[in-house]
Amino acid sequence: MSPARKSPKVETHTFDASTEPLGRVATKVASLLMGKHRPSFEKHRKDPVRVIVTRSDDIVFTGRKWKNKRYYRHSGYIGNLKEMSAEWMREHDSRQILRLAVLGMLPKNKLRRQMIKNLVIYKSSESK
Fold first, then answer.
1. Nearest CA to 61 among 101, 103, 120?
2. How many C-beta atoms surround the C-beta of residue 33 within 10 A?
3. Among the residues of 13-117, which ranges form H helices?
4. Which DSSP symbol is given to 35?
5. Residue 54 Cα to chain centre, angstroms
6. Count of alpha carbons within 13 angstroms of residue 15, beta-carbon side
7. 72-127 pLDDT, tens per residue?
């Protein structure tokens, strides 16, 4: 009979999105989700880390990015390229801005989807 495996404790980190620009917050979050802060880091293993980001409504952009930065999505049909500004994204769902920034910084492999599930983003400072 094999000994029962203990599930590792989930390490939780909290960030405030209103303190630094989007890119700096996103790189810290992506690094934590990958587990690069641990001495036992292995790129093929997902570490038990949960990252909570609060106040996504107050995300900081530098320069004129609120008007000039564009987000694109395509349905796969001809002529169906949708384009949205960062300002529009903030009004509709500011959590997507941070989620897309972190998603682009994670490795493009099978673990990416599992890692992004450990990211929790709240619009205001209150966590549920």
1. 101
2. 25
3. 22-34, 65-68, 86-93, 95-105, 111-116
4. T
5. 12
6. 26
7. 999 999 999 999 999 999 999 999 999 999 999 999 999 999 999 999 999 987 66
